[in-house]
Structures are given as structure tokens and as C-alpha cells.
Design a protein that fits this description.
Layout: E1 2-8, H1 13-21, H2 24-36, E2 41-45, H3 53-67, E3 71-75, H4 79-85, E4 94-98, H5 106-116, E5 119-123, H6 133-149, E6 157-160, H7 171-188, E7 194-198, H8 208-225, E8 229-232, H9 237-249, H10 257-260
Amino acid sequence: MIAIADNLNTRNKPYMDAISKKDKKTAAELVKNLAAAGADMINIQCSLDGVRDEETLPWVAGIISEAGECGISLDSRNIQAIQKTLPLCKKPPLVNFISKTEPQEKDVLLSLVADSEASLVIRASSGTIPTSMEAKLQIIEELLEMANGADIPNERLFADPSIVHLGRGLGQKHVVNSHECILVMKELVEPPLNTISWISNISTGLPKKLRKPLEAAFLSYLAGAGLDAAMVDILDEHIRKTIYLIKSFRDEIVFSQADIA
């Protein structure tokens, strides 16, 4: 299980203030805390629309690269920003994401990913998120063909079934078909695709005291289907313990009672 910290996002005020002020010391401390909490990768989001990402995304990526061995996930709608940032990553990053509607310049993004040996998230979305497993798989199949056509092999692709809020009208239906979608991709796609999910999305809109226990339970649920990577709030204790146990059960780390305590 690859634990990807989603904490560096536009809702994180200290982080966004650090970006605005180019406060490298504060940004480096935030990165250090995420690495210490067990993040295998750190997702970088500097804006929702990509505006000014060509300035901010490379700046944050440089700080993460200087800080240590955490991998980097580039979350931007700005292709120029991704192009400028790719060379700054110590090892090939994860580019997050391509969907049926984003970005408009898909060929450019696919070429950048292919040439840099980065990995790529292919997301089951066409502007709106499909409500059926079949529709999600159809979109992923189309994106898979595009990525393979650009010489990006399956082992560098992470399929995202797209998670919606549990409290939304069809939230429970989405939970079920996302779980089924991961199972199908693991069993029927050859060579196998990696799978990824943005776990924090499941609890949006719910009371704060319910969110993290719900996210931890949902993470376990998808791990049972074979989930390979998860975007999570790595600073939360519920999430950290769940990731530790998943990695222990999969024999990815050596279990220690002292660690889990």
C-alpha cells in the first residue's frame, strides 16, 4: 500500500500562506511532518484551477526533493507547471490526473509522462462521475488505450474509480461500484493496472468527529479489494494505524506491537 499524503492542499491555510510568502522554512517543516508520519509520497496541490502553478508547483517540489526520500505526486491542471516540475523530482513522480475531460491537451500531458518515466493517474470521470461500475470501467478502458498508445505501460498507470461523498444522494452506490471496479481491474486487466483512491473524499460534508474513523474504515474496505495506493490525511492517527496494519497484513513491513501502540 502506497500512502500518499493529501495534506498539501488549498484548504491547508499554513501551507497556502507559506506558498504565498515563499516561506521555505514553514513549507519544509510541513513536509518534514508528513514524512515523519509515514508518507510514501506527498501530493502537491497549489491551486484548484492551475493558475500560477508554473511558479508554485516547482517551488514546493524542490522543497520535498531536498527534504528526503518521499515520492511526489503532481496535482495540477497546468501542463506547463508539470513540465517545469518533472526535472526537479529525484525519482519519477506520479502525475495526478487525466480524465475524459481533463486536461484538454491530453496528447501533450501523455507525452510528458511517457518521456519522463513518470506514473499517471487515469480517473473514471467525464466531467461528472459515472454512477455505474460499467460506465467507470468504460472510461478507464478509453484512457488506458490512450496511455498505452503513448507508450506508457500498465505498471506506470494508476486507475482511480473516483470517490464521491458518502452523504450525497448516490454516495453508497458509488462506494459499492468503486469497490467492484477495483476488483474487476485487478482480475481482468492484463498486465494488471495499479489502483488508487482519494480516501478523504468519502467523508466530505460529514461532522468532523465522524470523518477520520469513516475514512479509515473505507480504506480497509478498498484494501480488501486490492487497492494499491491511497490519498489520505497522513497526520490522522486513525489513518496511520490503518495503513500500518494493511502493510503488516500484506507482509510489506514487519509488525511490531510497540509500533502500533
